[in-house]
Write a structure and sequence with these properties.
The protein is built from 8 helices and no strands. With about 200 residues, it is mainly alpha-helical. It has 2 domains: about 140 residues, no CATH class; about 60 residues, no CATH class. α2 packs across α6 and α3 packs across α4.
């Protein structure tokens, strides 16, 4: 890739991340659908499996999911400079919008039409999060570990909500990561033992 092509790609990255930061309401989860449409379905800068890994990494590392995702995609597209560019681009619109609202917060929230607008935005956010979740579920590899983990997590979330049990979402991530690591180590040990048996024969 020439310097000119790389510069064009960086400009495109900045504009896309700026647009996502400007029009994403509802936080990082609502952003998933837009990221997938822009970078997987649209420009094909990230493939489907890598996008699922991206979301897992962004969710499990410290910091807001939206910023972590933007940093990862930026790095994938244009290295360290791309990571910096993507992060800054996705942060600029929310920062200035929130700053402007904070100056007139009481007057802003007192407006009747603002309340109606926020109710409408809440419905859209639920749809964006649900559609992103369903799409990721469809694209997920249907192996026994994934099916058991997602079923157990969904069941626990429902039961804990019904019985008002206080259980942080962080624990779901940590437990899921530990189970994945445990299964990986078991599979590695099994493959090594099969390999040794094959060599012995």
């Amino acid at each position: 890739m020439t310097k000119k092509e790389k510069a064009k790609q960086c400009i495109k990255l900045f504009l896309i991340m700026f647009k996502i930061g400007l029009f994403t309401f509802g936080g990082g989860y609502a952003m998933i659908a837009l990221l997938e449409r822009e970078f997987v379905s649209g420009r094909k800068w990230v493939d489907k499996d890598e996008f699922l890994d991206l979301i897992a990494i962004a969710e499990s590392t410290p910091g807001p999911m939206a910023i972590n995702s933007a940093t990862y995609v930026g790095y994938k597209v244009a290295g360290i400079f791309g990571a910096l560019l993507g992060t800054v681009a996705v942060c600029i619109p929310p920062f200035f919008i929130k700053y402007a609202i904070s100056l007139f917060f009481d007057q802003f929230m007192a407006l009747e039409y603002v309340g109606y607008a926020f109710r409408g935005v809440q419905v859209c956010v639920i749809y964006l999060i649900a559609s992103a979740g369903i799409k990721m579920l469809r694209e997920m590899k249907k192996n026994p570990m994934n099916i058991v983990l997602i079923s157990a997590t969904a069941l626990c979330m429902v039961l804990f909500s019904v019985f008002a049990v206080n259980f942080s979402s962080i624990f779901y991530i940590v437990i899921g990561g530990c189970v994945g690591l445990f299964v990986y180590l078991i599979m590695k040990i099994r493959n090594n033992s099969k390999k040794k048996e094959g060599e012995a024969k």
